[in-house]
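We were asked to recover a plausible sequence for a given structure. The inputs and outputs are reproduced exactly as logged, with field labels preserved.

PROBLEM: sequence recovery
POSITIONS: 576
GIVEN STRUCTURE:
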């Protein structure tokens, strides 16, 4: 590469001049060297070699049509057949006007005629060709993902809209493909290997849309969106992608999920269509991966509408008191007879249209969409009000635990809000216990640690809920301030039939004993489960064995009945 002989502009543009006549090369040098860094070739083969060597920096190639070894037309043809060289514009040098049409058809950007035009005309043609080249590359770089070459999300939807407009009668499907737990591949094998996986998927998608039509996008880090003409089955597409991945991954490492929204409703927007395809894709979470795809159907649509209604109705439900607080007792079973220790506040929704809505329906939806904080604060307030009422009526109340989500803890006024409730209803931290799910502890341990320490300094007692459902609790328990471990209900599913399940429960109890904190088991339903937990050393149990969750009035009667039975008869009641 020639050295710079004088001060140049900051952004240097390189131009290759290929002409077998030295006098022509020198003429172009004199005209262009004040603005461009020039490279020279004396024949077609040398020109093609230099184009390949400097393809990443060349802004323009000027080719004489008549050259030895390879003429300019042959060089241009070879450039057009190479995807990397095709992007470089070429201006042809000729005195033969008849050659212009042929070269334009092949892909020439412009012509310079011999004898040469005025220098300002040459400058104008060169400048124009380079400017078009740079603008095209800028658009291409802006609209495409630099790693995979697929459209990025912004341009993808714009081009899909144009595609739809140009083909109004063609039925199109929205497809979402996700590499499940892609971060695991990145962490195990490194970033470069992860990039090769993404490129393998994108290469297959590019081939699919070239054959079938449509558009493909890398939507985010590990997700791809595809807009395809409608077809009846999609397993063959997934199989094609898996075959491509099979060259670099084993079967056990393939973690693909795919969801499809068949465009049955032409009124749906592109965003809605891909949102529905994503919902179908997410349905594959609990299914064997890489062995089929989920199709968005009427049932999914009805569920989506139902969930949207739940989100729409939350404020009205809070205002009208549709959310009811139920209380489920917790019993200390360490002594000879069970002793009522506390209760958990659980929310139920008595919807005027849908009837009793299961917490399993609305709580995950509210957590996913950011509504859970509103609901939790409503539950805390109603629970605090009820504890105050019982203390006013009886002079004492059973301690009640309330659930705290990850979003609650991130709220800047979280601690202040809890303390304001205690002041408003004249309660102490002994009256209201806090259950924080294990997942909240694991997602931001430093933040949770700071908040948990502050809460305990104020006197609150913290229970880690769903212990064992995550993967990093053991590492954090040594530093995390926790006052009780509440085992995930999944450990009790087979405790009466599986010795391994019994041993797992025993190990959790031993961990809690080592930390000198009590263990709580929820979901206890039978005498056999109760005995196994008591023999294992569990401290507190909760479940239908003692009582189902009860409305406030029934819970109040239950407590009075239990206290009377305990003091007068000396027996522990069983059943609801």
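RECOVERED SEQUENCE:
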């Amino acid at each position: 590469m020639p050295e710079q002989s004088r001060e140049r502009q900051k952004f240097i543009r390189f131009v290759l001049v290929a002409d077998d006549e030295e006098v022509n090369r020198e003429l172009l040098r004199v005209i262009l060297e004040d603005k461009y860094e020039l490279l020279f070739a004396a024949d077609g083969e040398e020109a093609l070699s230099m184009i390949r060597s400097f393809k990443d920096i060349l802004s323009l190639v000027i080719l004489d049509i008549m050259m030895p070894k390879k003429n300019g037309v042959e060089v241009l043809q070879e450039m057009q057949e190479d995807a990397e060289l095709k992007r470089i514009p070429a201006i042809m040098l000729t005195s033969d006007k008849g050659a212009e049409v042929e070269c334009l058809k092949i892909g020439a950007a412009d012509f310079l005629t011999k004898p040469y035009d005025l220098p300002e005309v040459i400058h104008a043609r060169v400048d124009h060709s380079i400017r078009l080249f740079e603008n095209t590359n800028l658009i291409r770089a802006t609209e495409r993902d630099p790693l995979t070459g697929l459209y990025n999300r912004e341009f993808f939807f714009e081009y899909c809209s144009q595609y739809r407009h140009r083909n109004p009668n063609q039925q199109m499907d929205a497809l979402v493909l996700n590499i499940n737990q892609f971060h695991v591949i990145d962490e195990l094998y490194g970033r470069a290997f992860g990039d090769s996986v993404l490129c393998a998927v994108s290469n297959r998608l590019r081939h699919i849309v070239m054959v079938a039509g449509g558009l493909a996008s890398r939507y985010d880090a590990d997700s791809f969106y595809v807009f395809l003409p409608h077809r009846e089955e999609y397993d063959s597409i997934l199989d094609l992608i898996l075959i491509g991945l099979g060259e670099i991954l084993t079967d056990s490492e393939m973690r693909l999920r795919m969801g499809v929204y068949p465009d049955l409703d032409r009124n749906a927007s592109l965003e809605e269509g891909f949102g529905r395809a994503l919902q179908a894709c997410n349905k594959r979470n609990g299914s064997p991966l890489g062995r089929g795809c989920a199709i968005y159907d009427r049932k999914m649509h009805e569920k989506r509408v139902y969930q949207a209604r739940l989100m729409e109705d939350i404020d009205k439900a809070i205002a009208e008191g549709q959310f009811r607080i139920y209380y489920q007792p917790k019993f200390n079973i360490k002594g000879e007879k069970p002793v009522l220790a506390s209760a958990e506040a659980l929310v139920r929704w008595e919807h005027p249209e849908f009837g009793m809505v299961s917490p399993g329906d609305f709580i995950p939806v509210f957590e996913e969409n950011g509504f859970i904080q509103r609901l939790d604060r409503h539950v805390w307030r109603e629970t605090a009000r009820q504890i105050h009422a019982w203390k006013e009526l009886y002079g004492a109340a059973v301690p009640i635990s309330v659930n705290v989500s990850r979003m609650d803890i991130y709220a800047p006024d979280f601690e202040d809000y809890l303390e304001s409730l205690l002041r408003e209803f004249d309660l102490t931290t002994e009256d209201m216990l806090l259950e924080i799910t294990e997942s909240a502890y694991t997602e931001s341990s430093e933040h949770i640690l700071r908040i948990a320490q502050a809460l305990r300094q104020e006197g609150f007692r913290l229970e880690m809920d769903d212990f064992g459902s995550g993967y990093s609790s053991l590492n954090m328990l040594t530093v995390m301030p926790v006052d009780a471990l509440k085992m995930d209900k999944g450990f009790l599913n087979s405790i009466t039939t599986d010795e391994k399940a019994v041993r797992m429960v025993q190990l959790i109890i031993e961990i809690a004993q080592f930390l000198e904190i009590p263990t709580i088991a929820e979901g206890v339903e039978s005498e056999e489960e109760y005995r196994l937990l008591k023999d294992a050393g569990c401290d507190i149990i909760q479940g239908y064995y003692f009582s189902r969750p009860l409305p406030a009035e029934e819970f109040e009667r239950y407590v009075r009945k239990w206290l009377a039975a305990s003091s007068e008869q000396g027996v522990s009641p069983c059943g609801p």
